[in-house]
Design brief:
Layout: H1 10-30, E1 34-44, H2 51-62, E2 72-78, E3 81-83, E4 90-92, E5 109-112, E6 116-125
Parallel strand pairs: 1-2
Antiparallel strand pairs: 1-6, 3-4, 3-5
Helix pairs in contact: 1-2
């Protein structure tokens, strides 16, 4: 038996494959001669996605894609935000607890925390000598 000592997360791998596919399509639609400088991803706390794995897999999946390789992957963690069903108070819930801090009611509705989206893609033109 051989141990590689590296934990593999298939969830993050499949998520990152979709991110790479989406970014690649967006860049292709924008025109030729572009290279991705950075990607900004909004990631809700409830997704269970680990940002470090997204960065790792992005680097791995794009190493042979000159227009995508080397891009900075910026990930903003979106907090869990609830709205109380009784009093309408909006509150952050760091641990996903549903109880309103204002009135104590437990009928909160999720407002944010499940997001997983590409917010922006920053590109630059590839110089003629680099094409």
């Amino acid at each position: 038996m051989i141990s590689c000592g590296k934990k593999i997360s298939m969830h993050e791998l499949s998520v990152t494959q979709e991110i790479v596919k989406t970014v690649e399509q967006a860049v292709d639609n924008a025109g030729r001669g572009l290279r991705v400088k950075s990607i900004r991803i909004i990631l809700g706390r409830l997704t269970g996605v680990i940002p470090e794995y997204i960065r790792f897999y992005y680097e791995m999946l794009t190493e042979d894609k000159p227009g995508l390789a080397g891009a900075e992957v910026n990930i903003e963690i979106q907090p869990i935000v609830m709205r109380c069903g009784a009093c309408g108070n909006e509150y952050e819930s760091p641990d996903g607890v549903n109880e309103c801090p204002e009135c104590g009611d437990a009928k909160g509705n999720l407002i944010s925390g499940r997001e997983l989206l590409i917010d922006s893609i920053e590109v630059e033109e590839i110089g003629v000598s680099e094409q």
